[in-house]
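Q: Predict the bound structure with iron/sulfur cluster.
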Amino acid sequence: MDATLKKDNLLVSVSPHVKSEESVSRIMWTVCLSLMPALISGVYYFGPRAALVTALCILTALFSELLFKRFVNADSTINDGSAFLTGLLVGLNFPATVAFYIPIVSTFFAIVITKQLFGGLGYNVFNPALMARAFALITWPRAMTTWIEPTAKFIGVDAHTTATPLGILKEDGLDKLMAVFGNASSMYTELFFGHRAGSLGETSILALLIGAAILLYKRYITWHIPLSFLGTAALLAWVFGGKTGLFTGDPILHLLSGGMVLGAFFMATDYVTAPSLKAGQILFGVCCGAITMMIRLKGGFPEGVMFAILIMNCFAPIIDRNFKTKVFGAKKANKDKGK
Amino acid sequence: MGLSTFSRGIHPPDMKELSSGSPLKPAKQPSTAIIPLSQHIGAPCTSTVDIGQVVLAGQQIGSAGGFVSAPVHASISGKVSAISVFPMANGRMVPCIVIENNNQNQFVDFEVNKDFMSLSPEELKKKITAAGIVGMGGATFPTHVKLSPPKEKPIDAVLINGAECEPYLTADHRQMIERPADVISGLKILMKVLGVKNGYVGIENNKPDAIEKMTEAAKSESAIKIITLEVKYPQGAEKMLIKAILNREVPAGGLPMDIGVVVQNVGTAAAIYEACALGKPLIERVVSVTGNGIKNPSNLIVKIGTTFSQLIEECGGLNNNAVKVISGGPMMGFAVFSLDVPVTKGTSGIVAMSENQVDATEKHGPCIRCGRCIEACPMGLIPSMLSIYSERSMFEGAKEYHLFDCFECGSCTFVCPAKRPIVQFVRLAKSLVKP
Ligand code: SF4
Ligand code: SF4
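A: Predicted complex:
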């Protein structure tokens, strides 16, 4: 028989025998990449310390993940990129001026408590990066709400402390905020480009939208969560956000400030902690938007994105269980999915 | 846009260019044919020959074991040398009749009937039954059973499946290009047997030459429509094809006949024509021997019972980097453990995969709930939950997620970034719970 005809060492496996090129690590690393514009803008506005804080978060995340896996005798999962991504997101959620031990402890908390103790990637209920921010905010409230004015200078930062636009809005009202920026249009411009106080990765809407466009183009995220989130928030801001009565609020201001864009595109869309069904995702987004605006307008904190997403994370599994897909050939969408 | 299709589904690289340009060519006759007595869904055949007996090509050697069964015929002339069990491509052991070729090429006299369309539906059906015709797309359901719907289920449409949505395979494609008239005649016979006024041929848009040839062949047939389908897997699955062409949904757990439809594949239609017009039983079929692991990918007309090894040899052999050989297409086919298995009525292709296409060490991770599988599932299921329940041995839970509506097309597994073996979990669960 033909010498090239192999007969004894054929590989046997079950179908399908072809798979897509997509992988968890490719997704994670692409999301990391899509956040680079935001990180760069953070460094641009808040100086090299922004990079340092983020690097610390990433290193802590990788180290914590490695340590935990070693501790439980499991294979390392560093290469899947999810720990790196968590570290990066934690970094982007901190003020650039924060004392170094805070991001380190918080990131450790995110990886070990929020992610690994719940079972690791795929099993965590809460978004780890947001848990880190919540943890830090509750443990070190002063440090986490001390903001510096952005400066486009890289060295010799002579940082003034200041409040975030939402902080000013909450404490002193819209007129004061306008006074800071001059007029409405220059306020929108400054907010859009990111020239404002805030977490180091959340301020530049432009940078975040570039990243979001990459993810949407790659179909790593879909419009369902971000659009319903932002749409609901904008609507509520317009209806209830005004001082002079209903329908006088400023939706653009609310969309551009705080962590709204970062949250809607990069945090609320986290696969693991959001619903998987599209209909459920829309409900999830609407609720996130509503809770955010409730906190911003009526709550004790100027910003509500983080709590809104964390609260909705709890509901994601329930939402998934109660939304059905239309099963092919079924008379109607099945009523008794799950338990 | 605007082409007929179904919801969801996937777009695997179709890889058809390897063999789509290679014209149909008769393969060399095998020196030994291993003819299984069970090449169909249903009762196995009973052998009607004895060891040592000389048989002619086309002679019936196994009689149907019941209504849901189909007779088998000798594909070559020669002496019966053994009747015993042999392994099939899917790993099952099946009783087979082995014929040593006497190289005389003696055929039984086929009953040619030029005027076959004037035969009565009953006579036509009898010929189809006697020819041992089964679904040649891979399902191998006996055709005459589909042609005998119960009275309360009137049929009003016959569909010919020319989607050929499995990557690599080009057997149906070549048949539509080279024998379009036979396929159309087969469809006309089916319509006559079933008393149906509407015939359709669904062809995916990646075969424009086939669409052209088939449209040409059906030009004078006002009752037959050629439908261009979007290229999408699994477009050729019966339920998806019916949805695309007629916008009807086969009820969950039901059959196409429940909504008045009979579907047959292109190769089957051509075989039906041969049975009725030429009196020829199903003793050969077109097989695409292709894949990156094959030296000269081809579409061969193969005698049933020819071994894979002989066909691969005829196509120049395997490349050095070939590691896996699949019977059927890569989405739903079986990886064979030996090349000494025979081609049967349901073997649509032999695909050799090369090393760089196969990752034998791949490990799967936990579900990251990305929802890709849900977006892919043509049945509208939630494959992630099926896999999670099955992985945790909670098979009853899987049932609540419509386990038994899954037809194992593999779309979910194809897209899963965590490389979860979802279909395998589904099969495991199916084998451990009752429907
Ligand atoms: S769950 Fe079944 S029907 Fe759905 S994509 Fe997976 S294999 Fe196909
Ligand atoms: S595609 Fe895979 S990882 Fe994504 S939801 Fe489905 S099973 Fe989970």
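A: Residues 148 and 299 of chain A are 24 Å apart (CA to CA).
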